[in-house]
Amino acid sequence: MDYASVMARKHDIMLRSVGIDYGRFATGRLSFDYEGMMEQIGYPLDEVRRIQREVNVGDTPLIEMHNLTRLARQLAEPGRGARIFVKDEANNPARSFKDRRASVSSYHAAAKGYPGLIAATSGNYGAAVASQAARRMLGCIIVQEIFDSRGFEQPEIAEKGRACEAYGAEVLQLSVGPELFYVFLRVLEETGYFNASLYTPFSVAGIETLGAEIVEQTRGRTGRDPDMIVSTHAGGGITTGTARGARKAGCDSVEIVGASVSLEGLHMASDRDFNRKSFTTGHTGFGIPFAVWPDRSDVPKNAARVLRYLDRYVTVPQGSVFYITEALAQLEGLERGPAGNTSLTAAFVLAREMPEDAVIVVNETEYTGAGKHPYAQLGFARTMGVEVRRGDPAEEKAGSVIVVPERPEQLAVREMDLNRLRSSYLKRACESLGDRRSVTVADVDFLAEDANLAGHVVRSYMEDRGITVE
Predict the structure, then answer these.
(1) How many angstroms separate the CA atoms of 236 and 408, rounded?
(2) Residues with Cβ < 8 Å from 354, sequence gap 6 or more?
(3) CB 401 within 8 A of CB 276
(4) Helix, coil or strand: residue 139
(5) DSSP assigned state of 136
(6) How far is CA 211 from CA 53, 221, 245, in A?
(7) How is 147-190 classified by DSSP, letter by letter?
(8) Are 351 and 67 in contact (CB under 8 A)?
(9) What is the crossing angle of helices 155-166 and 124-135, to 10°?
(10) What are the b/e assignments for 192-210, b being 16+ CB within 10 Å?
(11) Which of 191, 243, 253, 316 is least surrounded by Cβ atoms within 10 Å, i.e. has the fewest?
């Protein structure tokens, strides 16, 4: 089966593998009924809770970080240093929040008679899909991008592959490059399995329980709503789902902050750069592209649309995440993996800006193990020629040198300009119009909502580029 013929059938393959007619939600050339799609395709919050309790997903503990809070207050100005809490998602069956997404997809696949599930992922999601498929007695295939052209494999991805196989999944391991999507489509077509995409309404609905639990547990523990939720940002699903869940629990005022590892200068599709990063997810290589053009995903309309919900977006260096990983273990007795520790690094810094009676919640932890441990990651970085040393994290350069801080006061975040990302989003939307230089009022309203901008700003942006509004 040649590449061109498979790609020519991708729309039909996608339609059959997720069972969603995305076309019925279209309202314009660019616009679609996002909330209508979420309401009609996803499951209601109470139904998702029921589905997840059937398979022991969710209802994870909210843990207060007493010692990290105390340390943050020692470094803050008097009266500053918010209480830091962590939602311990490593207590889910496959030991990350991804079980929430996978639980709904596997339930839906079983209900609709699909014989199995497929996911293209090198992260925790593969293990979550494999685990939930096992609970529903469904087949499972995970497609991983793992090798560079020299045959080197990331220890973290290799460990996740072993976890998928332990749950009974078949794992297809590929080298970095464009064949991932081609292989994914072929396997979907050949097996008739369900596409357990990270970006369907099922997936995002599964995360809404996380946001609702955070609000309910915070109220129970502190008598108030969380002031800030910090979320490790990659493809946008956890941030979107958490924010939507918080709103459904009646918490509209919480500040939603995304945090990513800074991989500035590295290209994720590059054979050379692929193994010069120490974090397989939660980095800017995913975070920025998915923020400015969410529909670059494996489904026609992405349900994870993070610009709608982000109030603030910060980045942290790789070495700082390794530092806070060690601090979490030695100060709080919790050894957890890097994904949640990215947002914990940011939370530790941001807590110092906030009053002592404020509450900041990190919305996930993940499991750790041999391949995800800092020693394995840093050892692999050295093998790839990356220098690893102690010092000022401001001297870190992704792909060349990882700098682990010497002292906690060296931890810092870098603010990302959300308005710049919104402009990039609008630029992508304009480019997608091709030669037809007109849009409808519905398109303008959709773009304004999707980018969290005023309608007149979007209209002005369009008109400045010669695009008329009909």
Answers:
(1) 29
(2) 80, 81, 82, 227, 228, 360
(3) no
(4) strand
(5) T
(6) 16, 15, 4
(7) E-TT--B-HHHHHHHHHHHHTT-EEEEEESSTHHHHHHHHHHHH
(8) no
(9) 0
(10) ebbbbbbbbbbbbbbbbbb
(11) 253
What is the Cα–Cα distance from 304 to 239, expressed in whole angstroms?
8
pLDDT at 173: 92
Sheet holding 359-362, edge to edge: 62-64, 83-87, 359-362, 228-232, 255-261, 312-316, 414-415
For residue 364, the model assigns a pLDDT of: 95
Q: What's the rounded Cα separation, in Å, for the pair 322 and 287?
A: 19
Residue 422 phi/psi, 5-degree rounding, is -65, -40
For residue 253, give the nearest of 231, 225, 213, 212 by alpha carbon.
225
Confidence at residue 164, expressed as pLDDT on a 0 to 100 scale = 95
Decide: 256 and 233 in contact? Cβ < 8 Å.
no
Residue with tokens 């006061």: 409
- List the one residue out of 108, 175, 89, 128 whose CA is nearest residue 361: 89
Strands 170-175 and 468-469, bridge-based pairing = unpaired
The answer on pLDDT for 338 being more than 90 is no
Q: What is the mean pLDDT of the chain?
A: 94
Cβ neighbours of residue 115 closer than 8 Å, sequence gap 6 or more: 138, 139, 191, 192, 193
Give the residue among 51, 61, 365 at the shortest CA–CA distance from 213. Answer: 61
Tens digit of each residue's pLDDT (9 = 90 or more) over 221-277: 999 999 999 999 999 999 999 999 999 999 999 999 999 999 988 887 788 888 888
H-run or E-run covering 376: helix 374-383
Strand partners, 414: 315
Residue of 420, 395, 426 whose CA lies nearest to 318: 395
Three-state DSSP class for 194? strand
Residue from 340, 354, 332 nearest 72 by CA: 354
What letter does residue 355 receive in the DSSP assignment?
Answer: B
Distance between CA 366 and CA 281 in Å, rounded? 12
Beta-sheet strand order (sheet of 194-195): 170-175, 139-147, 116-120, 194-195
**Rounded to the nearest 5°, which phi and psi values hold at 219?**
-60, -45
Residues 6+ apart with CB under 8 A from 331: 65, 67, 68, 71
Q: Is the pTM of the predicted complex or chain greater than 0.90?
A: yes
Report the sign of the C-alpha dihedral through residues 319, 322, 327, 332, in that order: positive
Structure tokens at 23: 């076309």
The token pair that represents 296 in the structure block: 């670059």
